[in-house]
Amino acid sequence: MSEIDIASERIAVLVKAFQRNESRYKSAKYSEVEARKDFIDKFWIALGWDVNHDQQTNPYEQEVKVERGVAMGGSQRRADYAFYLAPNFHDVRFFVEAKKPFVEIGTKENYFQLIRYGWNSETPLAVLTDFEQFHLLDCRYKPDVDNALNRCLAKYHYTDYTNRDKFSEIYWLFSHEAVASGSLEKRAKELPKPRGKARQRGLFPGGYQSIDESFLAELDEYRKSLARNFKNQNPKLDSETLTELAQRTLDRLVFLRFLEDKGIEPQRFVDRFGESGTAWEDFIAASARLDRIYNGIVYKHHDVLDSDKFRVDDSAFANICGGLAHVNSAYDFNAVPIHILGSIYERFLGKVIVTTDHRAKVVEKPEVRKAGGVYYTPQYIVRYIVENTVGKLIARKTPDEVAEMRFADIACGSGSFLLGAFDLLLTYHGHYYNENPGKARKGECVARDGKLHLSLGKKREILLNNIYGVDIDAQAVEVCQLSLYLKLLQEETEASARQYVLDFEHTARLKKLLPDLSKNIVCGNSLIGPDILEGRLFAREEETKLNPMDFEQRFAQIMNRGGFDAIVGNPPYVLLQDEFRDNRQLAYLRSKYAVASYKVDTYHLFMERGIRLTRPGGRCAMITPANFLTNNYLAALRRFMLERSAIDHILVADGGVFRGISVDNAIFVVQAGEATRDSFAIIHSTPEASALREESKMLISPTEAMKQAQVLFTGQRDGRHSVLWERTEQVSVPLRAVAHVNFGKQLRDRKKFTRDVIEVASAHRIPKGYRPCYTGRDVSRYGIHWGKLACMNSDVARQGGCWDARRQDAENKLVTRQIGVYPQFGIDLLGYQCLNTVFMVNVYADGYDPRFLLGVLNSELLQRLWTERFFDQRRTFPKIKGTYLEQLPIRRIDFSDATDKSRHDEIVAKVEARLEAKKQLAKAKTDKDKTYYENKCAALDRQIDRLVYDLYGLTEEEIQIVERQK
């Protein structure tokens, strides 16, 4: 019997039971609690969900989280059921809200409440049910109570459950089997896209406005309003102070809304600001009161903001409070995942307030503007890095051993990686104590629903012991602390918070709810120490902006024990030549960092800094651009990684993981303290919606990599390819020994491309001072098709690349595109010039025919050797590099030896035939002729490959190594 048949039979039993006593179940005396126990729980159990946790007993690994309390403080705080899929117990798949059959469930208030849960958690669909009725709601749109009734997608009556077709609709959408196969995502994609006004509100592709886009837009508007308000009322405020004041005000309001929605604060305060005084006076009074209870940076007394002399336009501030208030608000901070709030704030921090004498406006930070925006690390990347560092280190350790460990992000931003580490630590401790209940000390756990949960005191202890962060931006430090506080209080309630206060109220150990994180999360420059100030004069503003930091002083105990146990993160990617006008900073960094190269990027320095700050045996992992694997100028970085750490693996995310950027990313995972001795894997993966799908794996031999001048991390599928390379080198010379390899010419200015390169009608109609030229799109394997471009040919236009007229204008030069997994060569018979999207190969050695090199370089053997040794690991715009082209092994030909001469000439003849076949293929008109010449080209390719194998003396076994990789 199939799963759906079993489910259908079980639910048919429930339907009959409901029918027999329908009047009782629909009476006012029959409660929601009874309806859930008698019918709703059993309905979802029939669909394959472990509602009663009969199998999933660990409270930290349960696919169904059930909220048994109906309401708190007069309003419901959580959806009744939240459904997850193992092993991801972080992201809700869908919500179910239960009601009792007596009431009408299809009200706009009920719909609005449930849609708000779903939208804030980024779940597209939700279910409202009392068993008698089953309503399917669309949660993709920003909640609007007046429009909520329009968000119902389908309605089912309990009698429909025994209708096979209608039950199948429910089953294949919400059963465990269906959800695990992606049913919800598929259904969401099938839903109609918005039209009219909904489409015009800046919604992203997919058709609806997400919580992060919506809330970020509102925060931006609130910041603008506060900036104008504060500046108008307090004209002497400077940009930095104004930015801090607006940030702190919004942080206080958001944190208070969080406390309200979680039920930790039993009353709704933001809704009532202005009832007992002005809205601002009530806000300041509430801040002082909350500071006495909670502590932390958010409500800490601010000399300007909390001053009696600070002036505010109360009407404008009251409007902001009204927009954020819970009443009919789209935002439910109990449902918004903490990491989503982090992603909102990460982008929020990309802007600052700038002032003139009388005005204030919000602008992007210069570094954000140059980078094209702020790119928040996806949660699945955070989890991958944290699990491969913190997770590996704490496995099989006791809580006492874990308490001695220190984990850091030295460019923490809004704290996404620290949140991930903290979450992992909380989960680990929860697992440990539930598996070893006798080892929990007094006050470390509380019993709830028959399971042990970490107490607030224990979570505070873990946060203070284990989590550390650094960022140069003071606002980022504030937001990071705020995010960690939100995570700390995520599972707390009014009762648990009150109990914590009572536990310490009458003791000398009185502790506020929130720990002081000022020594854990600090503001400073992770790359520059105070020694930069020695012997140099910096203006006060320059020095404070530079914000040099001494790790030995700020984290003395940690550094004295050898460093952090793990360092994780997503460091900034900034080319410092573009960033620093002051050469003193660049000179300092070059003197301090072994990896500093021709072009210094901050991420290179953070990689070295992270590894150096990790104690021996600790682990360091970051996500960076993938170009460090093969970039010519980063040999020192790769050598540093091999010599100063044991590389565990490097994962390449082909196409990148950041929305809107088509750049491959790499995650490196290393163990600090010892050199890399064993081969390590480069794993290629494709980013999906919330995971990385592994596609291929290649091995790097550290010994082989260190033999090369460039120390390339290009990989090999097995050791036989390294042997094959050595075999070809033994009978070869590098390409540079027989030919010049040059980049095409780079013209004066890309912004003037239309002037430096023009399109012409024919080669006979080219203006004076111009020459016909090839670009990358003109070149294919054994072919060049001129695209009717001509380029300037004067000294005025020169900027880079090859301008040697003898090479540019030479006939019979080989040409290959700059972009490709491996080089594919054509031959230029006309002597046209080349732009910098191609490389030119001009043969100069006596006796070597260019067509001989064309056949060898286009052969399967040379292409395979390239991909194993020089492929730059990028699936997005992989680059061919001249330095590597020059190293390709070209078989030495002794032209005085008849056998060698004969092999050379035979390849030339076959290549001539191949070129002619390519030409005929281009001219073919009929399918019959096209097929004929395609087959002829393929046959000639095969013949040339066999001649090349023979030329290099490959054995049949070695030929199979090459051929198997096709």
Q: What integer value in Å does the Rg equal?
A: 33 Å
Number of DSSP helical runs:
37
Helix content bin: 40-55%
The counted number of beta strands is 31
- Structural class by SSE content: alpha+beta
Q: Tell me, briefly, the overall form.
A: globular
What's the number of domains? 4
Outline the low-pLDDT stretches.
70-75, 196-207
Report on the biggest sheet.
9 strands, mixed
Distance between the termini: 45 Å
How much β-strand is present in the residues?
A: 15-25%
Biggest sheet strand line-up: 13-12-9-14-15-17-16-18-19
Mean pLDDT: 87
Map the helices and strands.
Blueprint: H1 3-20, H2 22-25, H3 32-46, E1 64-66, E2 81-83, E3 94-98, H4 108-120, E4 125-129, E5 133-138, E6 152-157, H5 164-174, H6 176-180, H7 183-190, H8 211-233, H9 239-262, H10 279-294, H11 296-299, H12 314-324, H13 338-348, E7 351-355, E8 360-364, H14 366-371, H15 379-394, H16 399-402, E9 407-409, H17 416-435, E10 445-448, E11 451-454, H18 456-466, E12 467-471, H19 474-488, H20 494-505, E13 521-523, H21 540-546, H22 551-554, H23 556-560, E14 564-569, H24 576-579, H25 583-592, H26 602-613, E15 614-625, H27 635-644, E16 645-653, E17 665-672, E18 680-687, E19 692-700, H28 702-707, H29 719-730, E20 732-734, E21 739-743, H30 753-756, E22 757-759, E23 770-774, E24 779-780, E25 783-784, E26 789-792, H31 805-808, E27 813-817, E28 825-828, E29 833-834, E30 838-843, H32 850-857, H33 860-869, H34 882-885, E31 889-891, H35 898-923, H36 927-952, H37 956-963
Parallel strand pairs: 3-4, 9-12, 9-14, 12-13, 14-15, 16-18, 23-29
Antiparallel strand pairs: 1-2, 2-3, 4-5, 5-6, 7-8, 10-11, 15-17, 16-17, 18-19, 20-31, 21-30, 22-26, 23-26, 24-25, 27-28, 27-30
Helix pairs in contact: 1-3, 8-9, 8-13, 9-19, 13-19, 15-17, 17-19, 26-27, 32-35, 35-36
